Amino acid sequence: xxxxxxxxxxxxxxxxxxxxxxxxxxxxxxxxxxxxxxxxxxxxxxxxxxxxxxxxxxxxxxxxxxxxxxxxxxxxxxxxxxxxxxxxxxxxxxxxxxxxxxxxxxxxxxxxxxxxxxxxxxxxxxxxxxxxxxxxxxxxxxxxxxxxxxxxxxxxxxxxxxxxxxxxxxxxxxxxxxxxxxxxxxxxxxxxxxxxxxxxxxxxxxxxxxxxxxxxxxxxxxxxxxxxxxxxxxxxxxxxxxxxxxxxxxxxxxxxxxxxxxxxxxxxxxxxxxx
Length: 275
Hints:
Elements: E1 2-8, E2 18-29, E3 34-39, E4 46-51, E5 62-65, E6 69-75, H1 89-97, H2 103-112, E7 120-127, E8 132-138, E9 146-147, E10 151-155, H3 165-178, H4 185-196, H5 206-211, H6 217-222, E11 233-244, E12 248-257, E13 260-272
Antiparallel strand pairs: 1-2, 1-10, 2-11, 3-4, 4-5, 5-6, 6-7, 7-8, 8-9, 11-12, 12-13
């Protein structure tokens, strides 16, 4: 499970405004091995966290490269996933590596292979000198990917902007923060981290419960929060990505340490897109 809020504005009126503001949580089993966000080695232009789970090594949940490509994936809430399905994290990694397909063409290819995976949603984007494009595809929804219009969106573990209570509440808070023109970059990041770490339960939620057939009632309740907390599973990573009108990227990650929800590390990366 995960949640993503983002504002896409390809032509901000002010040079101090943002083409993209993205705030995301990665929810996962605390013990699943993974690598915190970093560039993929010497001279790499790809920045992301990486899955280290056996058989899924090298997949990611959210990443960006210096050429302006960004991708993020969330699982679709299903009670009985296929244990033999392909790893969804490779959908992100493969897009960031690919130098030929644009965001829409890549999702067209993915949609033709959607049956190989358990339920997922994927956002792919390109931030270029002449045009910014953000696309979406979910393999439990329409068979075709879509290009998104500028606006504010929320994505959790159903299709894009499905009105789960947690999504509506988080999106409302996100909208209020990103529309506050008085915030500095650091202030914006702190406000967004506050949204991502809201542990208030948004239950009962009949719409989420209906999709969560196969989950226990206590787990469904835990999953109703923007920031999920249970004994063994929950929000492990917060990520904020800002892209401004002059191609500057700020990538901030707050990640759990030692499988302990009271221990966290924060890292930040700044770079300029090579577009």
